[in-house]
Amino acid sequence: MQNVDAAGLGIGDDHPPRIMGVLNVSAESPYDPSVYDDPGEAAAYVDEELIGEGADIVDVGLESANKDLDVLSAEQELDRLDTAVETLESTSGDAVWSIETRYHEVADEAISRGFDMINDICGFADPEMPRVCREHDVAVSKMASPPDLERPGAIEDVEEIYEALSMNGITDKTILDPAFGGWSAEKTHEDDRETFHRLREFRGYGRPLLVSINRKSFLRTIAGRSTEEALPVSLAATSMAVERGAHVIRTHDVAETRDAALVGAEFARDRYRSGRGSDGVAVEELDVTTVREAERHLDRIGAAGATQGDRSAAESAVMRTYELSGLDDPAVGALRAATAGPDPVAAAFALGDSDRERRETTASAADGGDGVAGDASAAGRRGLLIGTPSAVSAVRENVSGVSADLDAALDDIARHES
């Protein structure tokens, strides 16, 4: 999992869950307690009820997400930016400041005037947005969305969310948001519930996840609660979301959500990770519990020659998935032989494309970069080893002695499993 640095705030598996508190400077926003048009009052709210209650990030919305309202133009959002900037300058608390927008012009202006981060609710539907984020070297939350600046988050088919997150690429500092809520008339509560059920799947990109589920109707209807009564169901879902791999929780209820997120983090599965990197084979146990989740990681690394057997190895309830990086040729050969030879063990090894990740994150010349990928293979190859603990142990025995670095990595896994 790649961590993201948001103006000095670490976000990812190596850090505690982060809380994003919400401030709206749009009079038409549906949740009144967070709406302010006076910078002084807004700053007091931020200091006391957001940062003061434990918010790591303050996300400022310039317009309402209500799908029944007209979408603001970039010029209209820029007109409202003054209030947001004056609020930022009037606060005394320490937090990362995020601006919610869909337009690169607004993002560029906001970052130039003191904001630290972008929350793109149209997921790079504006193709200039990733260029602006790269040029300013800022973190950006990218919400799954159609390629349309007027339809943020309006993806009804859960199967299409994953691809939507790929629209116009991913920067080195991208955080992904699968988009919960009634962004379109066709999107149902059942769609949101299925998205939540499959939350781990979106970790397949290897990027931090943001979820915005606070008092959402797909949760309220489970318990038959109004928006005002929906805090308990939001907190229950928050703990589950963090346990399933969410890294940032966007909320109006900061203190309570922080506590629920910490509970979720405490009871998340303890997955093994070693960071040998250039000094040997690095190992990361992935948060995988289903075949579909394993498939996403196979796709992410561009697994060469991945077969149905590789994917079906994920069917066991006690399956483990390890990403091994820094593999040399003898290690790759040994792993392939142990899992696909005449007497294979009940495990699978899929070798990744060594150039894939660098191609996905290196900016093209048209996107503010030089388009040069560099020597992606210098640090060795990477692949996924999938199997039950006993199968992984059998692989360890079969490849013993081929590569000292691989032996050390598999010995570490064995110690973790014991």
Features of the shown structure:
five-stranded antiparallel β-sheet; elongated; single chain; 418 residues; 15 strands; 37% helix; alpha/beta
Question: If you had to describe this structure to a student in words, what would you say it looks like?
Answer:
37% of the residues lie in helices and 17% in strands. Residues 364-378 have low confidence and may be disordered. The strands form three sheets. The protein has an eight-stranded parallel β-sheet. The radius of gyration is 22 Å and the shape is elongated. 50% of the residues are buried. The chain has helices spanning 39-50, 74-90, 104-112, 129-136, 158-164, 189-197, 217-223, 231-243, 254-266, 291-300, 308-312, 329-340, 356-361, 389-399, 404-417; strands at 4-6, 9-11, 18-24, 57-61, 96-101, 117-120, 139-143, 174-177, 210-211, 248-251, 273-274, 282-285, 320-327, 347-351, 381-387. It is α/β, with parallel strands linked by helices and 418 residues long. It is built from 15 helices and 15 strands.
